[in-house]
Amino acid sequence: MQSAPPIKLDLLINLQTEAAEHYFEVRDPGKFAEVVALVATATARDVDAAVKGAYQASLIWREVPVAERGRRLLEAAEAMKAIAGELGITLAREQGMLLAETKRDVANGVQAIREAVAISAAFLEADIHEDGESLIRIEKAPIGVIAAIIPWNAPMGLAMGKVGPALVCGNALVVKPSPFAPVALTQALQLLAGFFPPGLINVINGDGEAGPALSRHALVGKVSFTGSIATGRAVMAAAAGTVKNIALELGGNDPAILLDDANPDEVVPELVKRIFPRSGQVCYAVKRIYVPQALHDRFYDSLCATVDQFQVGYGLDARSTLSPVNNQHQFNYLQGLIERTRAAGGDVRELGSKVDADTWRDGYYLRPAVISRIAPNAEVVVAEQFGPVIPLIPYRTEEEALQMANGTEHGLASSVWTGDFERGLQLAKRIQAGVTFVNSHARTSLGDRHMPFGGVKQSGIGRGRTTIGMAEYIEYHAISLNKKNLTNFQATP
Ligand code: NAD
Q1: Which of 84, 233, 330, 337 is deepest in the core (most CB within 10 A)?
Q2: 108 CB less than 6 Å from ligand 1?
Q3: Residue 249: CB within 6 Å of ligand 1?
Q4: Ligand 1 mean position to 342 CA, how many Å?
Q5: Going by CA atoms, what residue is nearest to atom 22 of ligand 1?
Q6: Each residue of 299-325: pLDDT tens digit?
Q7: Beta strand 16-18 with 11-13: parallel, antiparallel or unpaired?
């Protein structure tokens, strides 16, 4: 079958699409021969133009009433929903993941904008304190220009989780997608930008030059970064020059602790659903499992039998239940990690079947692997593997399990699996993490509205989602009014 010609994407600065000197190729991680897109590479000069445009737009947008900002965002979200099917297919081709997963990412993006609008009016009200003489209003003022730097693994949900709150709070944006999944996100942002004044949403692509230029630009008020810990450190250092506000949503190495009163046969199917989505390339996927010594063998057998059912194949092939990984660096790292784990004496079982063995040479395909008989401080346990590889570590006492769970630089999400409410809650409170689930992982029936998301230790600074996350996009401005000398005094203008 003839493949579609590559999509060509320019820069978007001040609502103008601008050609660049260089374009980089985005290839399909499941079919190397296919060039999905040619994407404009931004220079530091382009970044400067985008930030200056955003700054001017932010001065206008901050005066627009919150209700009007929300109305435009909802219209924009509807437009994005109308092309969700196409965006999902493009994302699956550039990012490599299963179509069901990319469609969910697009739907999460639309939902993130709607959620931000839904909570904005009450959140953005000033807080008021008053006595006979004075009135203090704590205004929630926009910051100005937000630089939103996005990773490749869930670009739509993560980007719109910044776009929604940033815009409804009165800011302007310069968004930098990842070079490993820039296409669907750039298309969506180009569409959304048309609903707002010129300069309010700018999109620049690239890597080496664009990211650092954005992180150190004097007119950027805040860098809202999602990505790896290593890049987070670089962003933090670049932002230090102008003492810039930053939010860092970084890597995780989420532990799941199974207690001795949990039933492995019930827990395993649930856990597998939380380890392997997007081929394990999820910041809050389960990345290591601690299991009581006495339950180890039963748990291991059940885990291997379940993981063996995966069908690894092309993301757009309906038979596939596990996709390739996204890029060469990740593919090489995971292969090396498996070799090093074997060399260290670990028992590595590579499981699952190939949907179409002939295509494997042309994509970053890996079988899902279950690792056992490995030291608790082995690389595969303490590093963020970010792939379809899961280590199982036995423990003797609950205290030992807790120490191992807390014994890394990470602190994003985590879970405890038990039949006892009180035991689960008490252990959950002692885990060093931004988010802990009991008897689930990365999922609550209450949705995202009530659960702020983010990490402690080196997993990040700040929170996303909810009104706590929205507070990342405002500056508190306290204004004290002396009533005695003011005519026409009113508490709420
Ligand atoms: P990455 O750090 O390599 O890249 C993230 C973004 O930063 C990309 O857009 C990249 O081009 C840009 N970038 C690269 N160098 C830069 C620099 N010096 N200055 C500014 N920007 C720069 O991460 P990735 O490989 O795209 O994503 C995977 C990582 O992201 C994993 O560690 C994962 O856990 C993490 N992640 C975290 C969350 C969260 O919410 N905590 C969510 C998703 C992914």
Answers
A1: 330
A2: no
A3: yes
A4: 28
A5: 211
A6: 999 999 999 999 999 999 999 999 999
A7: antiparallel
* CA–centroid distance, residue 229 to ligand 1 (Å): 8
Ligand 1 touching residue 227 (CB < 6 A): yes
**Is pLDDT at 87 greater than 70 in this prediction?**
yes
Range(s) of the domain holding residue 182: 7-250+455-477
Give the position, in ligand 1's atom list, of the atom nearest the Cα of 231. 2
Residue 176: CB within 6 Å of ligand 1? yes
What pLDDT is attached to residue 484? 85
Measured in whole angstroms, how far is the alpha carbon of residue 231 from the centre of its chain?
14
Give CA–CA dist 419/401, Å, rounded: 17
| Residue 469 CB–ligand 1 contact under 6 Å | no
Which amino acid type is present at position 123? Answer: F
Count of positions (residues) in the chain: 493
What is the DSSP annotation of 304-359? HHHHTT-EE--TT-TT-SBPPPS-HHHHHHHHHHHHHHHHTT-EEEE--EES-GGG
Number of domains in the chain: 2
pLDDT mean across residues, the chain: 96
pLDDT 10s digits, 200-225: 999 999 988 999 999 999 999 999 99
> Do 445 and 462 have their domain in common?
no
Ligand 1 mean position to 246 CA, how many Å? 14
Q: Give, in order, the Cα–Cα distances in Å from 337 to each of 306, 383, 477.
A: 22, 10, 49
Is the same domain home to 280 and 197?
no
